Amino acid sequence: MSTAGEPSGDVTGEVITAAADGQGAGPALAPVHETFTITEDRPLTLDSGRTLAPVQVAYQTHGELNGDKSNAILVCHALTGDQFMAGRNLVTDRPGWWETMVGPGLTLDTDRFYVICANVLGGCMGTTGPKDIDTATGKPYGLNFPVITIADMVRLQKRLIDHLGIEQLFCVTGGSMGGMQVLQWAANYPDQVYVAAPIATAARHSAQNIGFHEVGRQAIMADPNWHGGDYYAHGVVPQRGLAVARMAAHITYLSEAALQHKFDRNLQDRTKVSFGFDADFQVESYLRHQGSSFVDRFDANSYLYITRAMDYFDLAAEYDGALANAFRDTETEFCIVSFTSDWLYPTAENKAVVRALNAAAAKVSFVEVESDKGHDAFLLDEREMFTTLGGFLHAAAHRRGLGQRQSPGHARP
Amino acid sequence: MNRPIDLSVPKLRLGGIRPDFPIIAGMVPSGTRVLDIGCGDGDLLQFLQLEREVDGRGMELSQDGVNASVARGLAVVQGDADADLVDYPNGAFDVVILSQSLQVLHYPRLVLEQMLRIGHSAIVSFPNFGYWRVRWALALRGRMPLTSDLPVPWYDTANIHLCTILDFLALCQDMDLHIEQGLTLGRRGNVKAIGAAPGRANLFGEQGVFLLQKR
After folding, report:
1. Which helix (H) or strand (E) is A385 found in, with range?
2. Which of A223, A299, A342, A376 is catalytic?
């Protein structure tokens, strides 16, 4: 379990078609991997006031877009996630991060829907981020990359969706930071979102969440290999700092009960403590493993930029301080899911969104799923989450006139 | 979870719908905004959407109920009427309905206040503990009633605030509420206006259904 996907390294700019994973019922169409590039003639304008171009977006699609392009679902990924939501991750060769949700016959049924997931702006899986070359200097951006926001990520996704010729997304969904993007989509582009399903998220980052992120960033910046963000030129990676950041963050994705249940005070490959600072306890060994495997797939500067974007997120502030204003006159229908043991994006934060939607007279459904898995529950096999979202999407698809399955012969852009 | 299992669903169903549904629908103007508190599987909300073309919302405690409602395309929030009605803004709804759930609430009076804060009108239906069969069982046997409508023993029932029609009328008076309409529902689905004979209604009405407004 990890609030992420996997990967690290470069994704080529070409179209790659991975082998079908053959999960679920029926022959699964292979996911399609593509890139889309924003060029200098129409750069991306950011909240900071800066513009960015060229910008490449790496994205994955499953299923087929129907004739009137009405069956598209945009999945927004979390902090350390990526576009490889289902099927083989082409970078890490591991399964996608939302295998439980996306696939033939699953909640996001790829026999019925055209499911899109793009690596976020500032990411390191093929979408332009700080490790990529700044065309102005011919060197990696490093800290010259502009500070980005959740709204900037969504702006880039909007450009992709326009490029695909999709006028209105059937659904935008995602958990954690993905849920923030869902809320931003619904607020900024209400006419382009038929239904929205933000999961385990919040309309603003709390002081505690900013605090945890700051610990992670300071760990990275304290690593001498970081070199003020210019480690690319030195041929090194701030591995220790990034690993510590991941270890600290990983604890916040779980719950006390989950850690207790999984590790208790069990010792790692020994029968008594060593009276040293080795990983005596299983929980230490586990976190060390989480940290070291993370550095293989994630860019430290991307971690700085994306955590900053999350910290800056405060949707109400963009709408005169009242969250309800963000959803005024919205026709979008919402389904919000939280988890009882999630202390990173607790039920209270999710309910604040429900309350604002009620105040805006929006159609909103909400459930709090009983789980001891903590924040990571949204990535796991949580039956009640599937039941709620599945029912919500089924009813919405019925209203929209989407059949059970899409017939072949579609318009893939 | 805490659905009223004993008194909530009258045995008699007319054409697959609960007999109090048409009565409630008769109190709901067409095309209005409606909140159903304790909406269960969404049966009443769906009925009102079909019959009255309401813009409906629901609140339900049990996850199964929310899931069933959401799967029918209804907008339902998992929540507890005792605690979560404060989250709704003033005057958000035309009609707020509390059907067969009054007796399981911890704070029925506060919930009634909230209902008339967030809605222009409130519809409340509840089992009448003054119904003669209930009285008979208590008077004759000296035990808590166990009838076909009260099948659950006192130690297992979700009902914690049972009342009679007269009790409810007294509460409305105490809260200075205007009773726009008061009806009773009998054992065979017969509907009677409470009118000027509340004592009689209290004896023969199995359920009370009230349309309330603030004065």
Report:
1. helix A383-399
2. A342
